[in-house]
Amino acid sequence: MSVDMNSQGSDSNEEDYDPNCEEEEEDEDPGDIEDYYDGVANDVEQQGADAFDPEEYQFTCLTYKESESTLNEHMASLAATLKVSHAVAKLVLVSFHWQISEILERHKANAAQLLVEARVQPASSKHAMVHSSHHCAVCMQFVRKENLLSLACQHQFCRSCWEQHCTVLVKDGVGVGVSCMAQDCLLRTPEDFVFPLLPSEELKDKYRRYLFRDYVESHYQLQLCPGADCPMVIQVQEPKARRVQCNRCNEVFCFKCRQMYHAPTDCATIRKWLTKCADDSETANYISAHTKDCPKCNICIEKNGGCNHMVMGFLLFSADFCWMCLGDWKTHGSEYYECSRYKENPDIVNQSQQAQAREALKKYLFYFERWENHNKSLQLEAQTYQRIQEKIQERVMNNLGTWIDWQYLQNAAKLLAKCRYTLQYTYPYAYYMESGPRKKLFEYQQAQLEAEIENLSWKVERADSYDRGDLENQMHIAEQRRRTLLKDFHDT
User: Fold this and answer.
1) Distance CA 78, CA 93 (A)
2) Spatial CB neighbours of 447, under 8 Å, sequence gap ≥ 6
3) 281-314 burial string, b = 16+ CB within 10 Å, else e?
4) How much is the pTM?
5) From start to end residue, where is composition biased (Acidic residues) (predicted)?
6) Which helix (H) or strand (E) holds 412?
7) Region for 357 from its dihedrals, namely left if φ exceeds 0, alpha if ψ lies in -120 to 50, beta otherwise
């Protein structure tokens, strides 16, 4: 990796989608390698047990109509078994996350208690007395008996108040959450009770969308695609924190939390890390400029590529060092483990609160800098990927082979991005990990992965200097390191 010198100092068919979703065209960032999980399998073929991919995960992309049909099928079956209306069956399914086997077990044990827990029937001791008075309990107006409406709890209110109640909640985006107006009554209103109370078709359409959203989000096997205005639904058999991709908008995300895919870090940890990064963004600003001083001549330097192997050459001297620790690269191979591992102060618990606070900040900045460095490297290596594509195109146009002949270069850049993305997310994992033998094993595997990624990055950026066999061998090693780490530490 050469350096730039700066001045001294300072993711179907259209008719299957919700018609209310307006499709917007987004500007694609040419620096992103969105498909880096595709097309590299043949170049890193494994044999026997090595073929295990800890990220392998089966999922299906469903259209709006397909997912609605799936939900309705479950609902109809349960309604017949419980002998309740379809609307009530849906509320029961939502309450128990659509786990039908659990619902049937509870129904067999105590059918009445099941409906109480689903908030569609009141507990027997809480049944309200039906008053002979025809006054609405909200507006206190005298109302004809036929205009008084109530749920199973028998809390009676006039139709006008029910209409206002439902209208306000639906306008606020509430679906399944529409409930009884009586104080301390948590009974949910079935959809067949709400629909006749909504005054316009527009409001009814909104209510349908909010209900669909709530039904999907409560289903343990379904997730809405988080892509902008995308109505697709991802279906799995076993919900896990695994990578899924929408086949309509190509959005890639974690099935469990719908955030950016973050293996090996688990969902709760990555939320804590991203929150901490946002809260401490001002503290970390001084390291986000991506500039450092050369350890030999003190000239301010900036990375212009993804790898951390820095090379500076002048008439009087040359420097060969690591971007992260600024150590001599010649001895770096044996010390790489030290570069990626934070050295805890074992005596810090016996020192002052100020010293502990400084140590905590030092530790955070250590991991944050490496997190940011790999994010920056991903962006720079995406530019390398674009240059490789252009180079392949040029060679094909000049009859120097076909796309198939040179595709291994493109696949190498994709695999590099895939491995570095995983490496970036190892740092939040390590930051929150407790000290001990398991953390030592993790840091060892992290360092092994990082070393091979830097070797791969160096060779990808200088692909013309290495033959195909050498490059593909490095790809194989890097992917093996990545899979080994995920196999041992990926949240299951």
Assistant:
1) 8
2) 336, 337, 339, 340, 341
3) eeebeeeeeeebebbeeebbbebebbbbbbebee
4) 0.77
5) 12-37
6) helix 403-424
7) alpha
Torsion-angle region of 351 (φ positive above 0: left; ψ -120 to 50: alpha; else: beta): beta
Q: What angle do CA 213, 255, 37 make, to 5 degrees?
A: 130
Residue carrying structure tokens 């969105």: 34
Nearest Cα to Cα of residue 486 among 435, 432, 431, 429: 429
How far is 290 from 392, CA to CA, in rounded Å?
30
Predicted confidence at residue 354, as pLDDT, reads 77
* CB contact at 8 A, 233 and 458: no
Cβ atoms within 10 Å of 108's Cβ, excluding its own: 9
Q: Which residues are catalytic?
A: 307
- Highest mean pLDDT, choosing among 283-292, 318-327, 339-348, 363-372: 363-372
326-329 — which CB contacts under 8 Å span 24+ positions?
Answer: 326/292, 326/295, 327/295
Q: Residue written as tokens 């309740």?
A: 84
154-165 per-position pLDDT tens digit: 898 999 999 999
Torsion of CA 227, 233, 238, 241, to 10 degrees: 10
Are residues 264 and 490 in contact, defined by beta-carbon separation less than 8 angstroms?
yes
Q: Which residue has the tokens 């009445």?
A: 112
Decide if pLDDT at 210 tops 60.
Answer: yes
Q: What DSSP string describes 143-172?
A: --GGGEE--TT---EEHHHHHHHHHHHHHT
For tokens 């005596």, the residue is: 347
Domains located in the chain, CATH noted: 59-254 (3.30.40.10), 267-488 (1.20.120.1750)
Closest CA to 422 of 43, 32, 36, 28: 36
Tokens of 237: 């058999």
